[in-house]
Amino acid sequence: MEKALREIVAKIAETKNDFATDAVLRDDIGVDSVRGLELIFEIEQTFSVKVPESRYGEVRTFADLVTLVTSLKG
Description:
The protein has helices spanning 2-13, 25-29, 33-47, 53-56, 62-73. By secondary structure, it is mostly helical.
């Protein structure tokens, strides 16, 4: 799952997928609020989950994102 998420984040942020696991989505990777919405949509489509906006708001790093999606897949 982490590999697929890494590819999605890289595609949305228009960057390489070699960022660190502890990279901050906004500051280090370039996922601003608009790209964040695109990211949520892609995650929901790819993993067949519903990402609550409140839970996404708690995500700061790529590792946080992996943890969130993993918990949603349950």
